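Q: Hi! New to this. If I give you a protein sequence and the SMILES for pyridoxal-5'-phosphate, can you show me the bound structure?
A: Yes, paste them in.
Q: Okay, here:
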Amino acid sequence: MKIPFTTPFIDQSVVDEVVDTLKTNWITTGPKVIAMEQEIVKLTSAKAAICVNSWTSGAILMLRWFGIKPGDEVIIPAYTYCATALSVLHCGATPVMVDINKDFCINTEAVRRAITSKTKAIIAVDIAGWPCDYSALAGIINRKEIRKLFKAESLKQTVLNRILLIADAAHSLGAKTNGHAAAIDSDVTIFSFHAVKNVTTAEGGCICLNLPGNFDISEEYKYLKMYTLNGQNKDALEKSKGGGWRYDILFKGLKINMPDICAAIGLAQIRKYETLLLPSRKAIALTYYKRFKEFDEFELPPLFERGHESSYHLFPLRIKNITEQQRDEIIDDITTKEIAVNVHFIPLPMLTYFKSLGYKIDDFPMAYDQYSREISLPIYPQLTGPKIEYIVKAVINAVEKVLNKKIEKLETAEVVF
Ligand SMILES: Cc1ncc(COP(=O)(O)O)c(C=O)c1O
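A: Thanks. Here is the predicted structure of the protein with pyridoxal-5'-phosphate bound:
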């Protein structure tokens, strides 16, 4: 049985929505993007949503919007995908890396210690779809002594008058905190709609704004939309209308808009996200959870705790007391069964480019420990019961082979949800 690590959800409704877009003869940014933004606002209750062509470009846009420049610092976890750090570097600023907790989230105490008078933003990362503790992070940036350290050096920084809290929610569309979308617990939340994500537009992303009341959200929305289109005061659809040819360039924008042909894919998916796609991911995660909980050798990812609920984007299983080499051997053995698994993530300080900038993995012991024992299992709506059981058995067999022992079921393994 051949099992890919991930596969996009393309049903007839996705095909119909794309064909509909093609037949309208309008394939770049237009009504489908607006509809997608409205669906995201409906799903999250964010104050506004702006679609872009990737998470990465959305993050660069928001860091620039806030006026982040060389000499500034942005705190990020060492355990994330490179884009979190690269977005900061593309603005000329310095990513200040800190360690994570056992639940993969950025360590809030380490964040507090890393704040200096140069800190302009924090990017927390919802690894695997598990939302970070944004209320703790908000508590830190709102402390009197931390606010006093903050030096506003741009118009937006003057209006906010504190550190900007950004959620790297590339994995966490649909994650919840105390019953509401986790996406509204930070100032800015950015989703990715890359091909492997819970909802995809092939490539794409979305910025959700939850800025405080002294920001005019509809003005910020208009400004950011222009920013995605070279700073042009009209989009192509408006320009194409009779007599609409004259336009102006108001500032040095980026060209990072999402086309309608891409939005159409995501639109058909997001309409059934809460009724079909998210529940089926959850069901798979719970099956894995129950099966692996039967053995003492496995460390399960957080799915719902402390009022938080995951978006079930990844299932990052960890195996207790193994080395990185044993983890690699377990993956090799699983691969012989034609099951594709993955590792999320190789900590940034282990990658050549970040090493060349002086980051050292020894400074992030928890990030290394999590990485060295982690295997991400396939999780997507098309994965049916027999395939899940095939994966579970392959993992157990591989662990037994590499540890050279039979692993026994626990007597008290009953899991109640
Ligand atoms: C945690 C995290 N942040 C950011 C990104 C970048 O997303 P995109 O490919 O849409 O730029 C990814 C992509 O996989 C990711 O996993």
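A: The pocket of pyridoxal-5'-phosphate is lined by residues 54-56, 80-81, 83-84, 125, 168, 170-171, 192, 194, 205 (CB under 6 Å). Let me know if you'd like me to explain how to read the tokens.
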